[in-house]
């Protein structure tokens, strides 16, 4: 268990948060915490993408294998962040039970992979699939705060977020889930953790689908109203003959 790396990661994310607090002192705590979350999302997606697609091994065929040094490093960086973010969420009571359960399950899953020294490749794959939509989620929040959400840019961010979540986290996540369950090397406790994370992904997917439906319906209604107003304004008044 690379305890020192995890502690250094936690201290690093905390220092980054304090740096943002001093730099953006006119902003609230959530603004600065989300900047840390955005930074972590970008870094961990790039790091786990390298671990999964370049360094290897391939998680779909090597689930349950021994952890590599780079996998351990990536897991330690991510675990330190989740400790920081969970502590912040509990302190400020900013998240509901589902998100807190997601954080807790992520911490337990990463801890198990580090403590047992196996399943690092599929854990990194799960982190990649889970965090790839995070920068878009944070961008959406920042656009709202800046008053830029109700625009073409906001629509593009929402659309890309929904597509990525459905294809990567749920689509590829289902394949990853199947490979983990059927792998003879994967320990039973890691398979149970995979079940928990997969169920949480579907809980989020249902909420996202509802959001997408409501937004699409609102956009359609707005388009219909604007169309009716345009047609009304283009109609010429009929004159009366004397």
UniProtKB/TrEMBL annotation:
Its main location: membrane. Residues 26-214 form the TLC domain. The chain crosses the membrane at residues 6-24, 31-52, 72-92, 104-128, 159-179, 186-205. Signal peptide: none annotated. SMART domains: TLC. It is a multi-pass membrane protein. It comes from the Eukaryota. PROSITE patterns: TLC. Pfam families: TRAM_LAG1_CLN8. The keyword Membrane applies. InterPro entries: TLC-dom (IPR006634), TLCD5 (IPR042512). The keyword Transmembrane helix applies. This is TLC domain containing 5b.
């Amino acid at each position: 268990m690379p305890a020192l790396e995890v502690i250094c990661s936690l201290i690093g994310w905390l220092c980054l948060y304090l740096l943002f607090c001093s730099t953006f002192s006119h902003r609230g705590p959530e603004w600065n915490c989300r900047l840390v979350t955005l930074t972590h999302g970008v870094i961990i997606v790039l790091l786990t993408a390298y671990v999964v697609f370049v360094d290897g091994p391939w998680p779909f065929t090597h689930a349950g294998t021994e952890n590599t040094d780079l996998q351990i490093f990536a897991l330690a960086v991510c675990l330190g962040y989740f400790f920081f973010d969970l502590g912040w969420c509990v302190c400020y009571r900013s998240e509901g039970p589902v998100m807190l359960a997601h954080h807790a399950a992520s911490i337990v899953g990463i801890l198990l992979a580090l403590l047992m020294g196996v399943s690092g490749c599929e854990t990194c794959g799960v982190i990649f699939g889970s965090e790839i939509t995070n920068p878009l989620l944070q961008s959406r929040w920042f656009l709202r705060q800046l008053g830029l959400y109700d625009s073409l840019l906001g629509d593009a961010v929402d659309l890309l977020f929904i597509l990525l979540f459905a294809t990567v986290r749920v689509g590829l996540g289902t394949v990853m889930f199947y490979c983990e369950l059927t792998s003879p090397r994967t320990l039973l406790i890691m398979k149970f953790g995979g079940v928990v994370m997969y169920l949480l992904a579907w809980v989020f997917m249902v909420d996202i689908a509802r959001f997408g439906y409501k937004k699409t319906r609102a956009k359609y209604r707005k388009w219909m109203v604007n169309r009716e107003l345009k047609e009304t304004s283009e109609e010429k008044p009929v004159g009366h003959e004397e």
